[in-house]
Description:
CATH superfamily: RelE-like
CATH class: Alpha Beta
Order of helices and strands: EHHEEE
CATH topology: YaeB-like fold
Mean pLDDT: 90
Distance between the termini: 37 Å
Amino acid sequence: MNKYEVIVSRRADEMLVQHARFLARVSVPAAERMVSEFELVLDALEDNPYQYPVDDDYNLPKGAYRKALFCKWYKALFSVSGSKVYLDAVVDCRQDKPLGSNSAH
């Protein structure tokens, strides 16, 4: 049984789809690998979200988010409250966008 419940926000889900769609235009296998690695992150978050470091991005509230890096340049941003993990964003680290930004690729 999982120790934590991971709740993926609609926004994070949409961001993942946008990133995968963009990547698939270049390479379908790369897009599939990215989604597969994201699924591994979700599994790891269910087990222990504290294995990931606090994100020190100056665009984010200090100490509010943790980050899980995957597939070379993507990161999942999440917070933990009790036994729930709230995944709020999937960011392409090659872009300089704060969490509150609405722009896509």
